[in-house]
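Practice problem 4.
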């Protein structure tokens, strides 16, 4: 990689129409090959990814077909890179729609199905139930309707597991069951997911 360090500037020229600003996002993995974050999904612009390759901070794991080119240089645009140095993840996970669904494995906590997932306040709001990790669960719209804003016992329903605040590690191990290919579809819904749940 010695040569790369000596390059004076990053290539600006790209294949016209193929690689433009905002296209070709690159998924960033930690040194353990897990995404640096699931929510928001750790993505870099292709420019940042190429820069990190030049600085020798990342290994290239996957590539797009398109290339970036300058006069004396060409390389495929990285689609997945892994950091060479591990970044510890000590923070608490953000309380978001995505992380909540991830905690519950994209399945209804009452019946286990994954159809038309919504959120349910286990203790209903009108009875003082909070919007928090331990009172919000993923629920299918059928169960949500059936529960109808009542306490579980009144509705004759039960949860498959008690909701608690997950650690980053728990979310990451859940994330392994839903690898980036699965998550990719949710990029389309990025604005929807990009909302912290109100507490
Ligand atoms: Zn259900």
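Answer key:
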């Amino acid at each position: 990689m010695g040569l790369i360090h000596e390059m004076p500037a990053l290539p600006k020229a790209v294949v016209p129409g193929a690689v433009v600003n905002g296209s070709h996002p690159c998924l960033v993995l930690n040194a353990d090959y897990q995404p640096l974050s699931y929510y928001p999904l750790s993505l870099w612009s292709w420019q940042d990814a190429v820069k990190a390759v030049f600085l020798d901070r990342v290994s290239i794991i996957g590539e797009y077909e398109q290339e970036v080119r300058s006069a004396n240089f060409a390389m495929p645009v990285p689609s997945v890179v892994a950091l060479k140095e591990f970044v510890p993840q000590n923070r608490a996970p953000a309380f978001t729609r995505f992380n909540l669904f991830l905690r519950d494995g994209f399945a209804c906590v009452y019946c286990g199905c994954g159809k038309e997932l919504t959120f349910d306040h286990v203790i209903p709001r009108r009875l003082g139930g909070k919007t928090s990790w331990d009172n919000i669960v993923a629920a299918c719209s059928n169960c949500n309707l059936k529960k109808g804003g009542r306490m579980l016992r009144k509705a004759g329903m039960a949860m498959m597991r008690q909701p608690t605040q997950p650690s980053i590690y728990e979310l990451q191990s859940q994330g392994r069951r839903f690898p980036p290919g699965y998550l990719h579809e949710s990029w389309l819904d990025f604005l929807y997911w990009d909302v912290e749940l109100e507490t």
